[in-house]
Amino acid sequence: xxxxxxxxxxxxxxxxxxxxxxxxxxxxxxxxxxxxxxxxxxxxxxxxxxxxxxxxxxxxxxxxxxxxxxxxxxxxxxxxxxxxxxxxxxxxxxxxxxxxxxxxxxxxxxxxxxxxxxxxxxxxxxxxxxxxxxxxxxxxxxxxxxxxxxxxxxxxxxxxxxxxxxxxxxxxxxxxxxxxxxxxxxxxxxxxxxxxxxxxxxxxxxxxxxxxxxxxxxxxxxxxxxxxxxxxxxxxxxxxxxxxxxxxxxxxxxxxxxxxxxxxxxxxxxxxxxxxxxxxxxxxxxxxxxxxxxxxxxxxxxxxxxxxxxxxxxxxxxxxxxxxxxxxxxxxxxxxxxxxxx
Length: 342
Ligand SMILES: [Zn+2]
What we know:
By secondary structure, this protein is α+β, with helices and mostly antiparallel strands. The protein has helices spanning 64-67, 70-76, 82-89, 102-110, 181-188, 205-219, 221-224, 228-233, 241-256, 262-275, 279-293, 298-309, 319-331, and strands spanning 27-31, 37-41, 50-54, 58-61, 112-116, 125-130, 138-139, 145-150, 155-160, 169-172. Helix 9 (241-256) packs antiparallel against helix 10 (262-275) and helix 10 (262-275) packs antiparallel against helix 11 (279-293). Residues 140-141, 184, 195, 197, 199-200 line the site of zinc ion.
């Protein structure tokens, strides 16, 4: 492993084993046409499953110019094992030699942001990790995986954000995918390609405008749409306000292939049904949270699984339904004694 000296005290001790990989691997590396090599699903993979676990072959500062001498990249190269060196040098390099040394170019092309910290001394510090498998995934503005860094095991796990068919290409994101297409393409120019993913290669300007508008709406969602917490106790709002609004978000997410954004919206729909005391629908949506989060966010999955087992253990269970009944009762005309007393 190639390390910046200040990283050493930030390394986890003891280093625990990373999560178990699937055997045989659920992925393979193959030719992806004009994109060069790419990562592909070796089998059908369900949503939420771990596709691979990867450890960095190099750790570099996130801001190269700040405190890292360029020559240090190449000076450290002979210090790593032959197999690591060969793996590292086989990775893509979008930087010309006239601009920077080869290892620096490879690091700049492939590094993923990771956080290191040595508690209790310092706040987490950002570094770049070069993960030899993760960085094989090409970019798409409709990525289909999520990558989660785990400091104690010094590894990242890659999760499926939607079901894969065997042979399908696995896509990561290299830039902010909520930006408009023109901005995305400008940012990707530093990797030396024009993005022709299915969300960029659109038939006409009308489609581009529609896609850009959907991404802008998702980015600013909470400034534009009702929020769950205020809604949950505000009886002036329609009972289905959050459900209707979040179903629209999910439709936009589906349209743009931004599957990684789904969970918070699904979670709010489930909790809306909990506040409305609708048990069948609550179970249906809560189960989706469990399915999506089982691998990536087990704490959240366990919390929702507990509520599925005992829906009424949710603190606000049926609160709006009870309030609505009381309000409807108040609206009922009072019994008036219209009998004439004579
Ligand atoms: Zn694209």
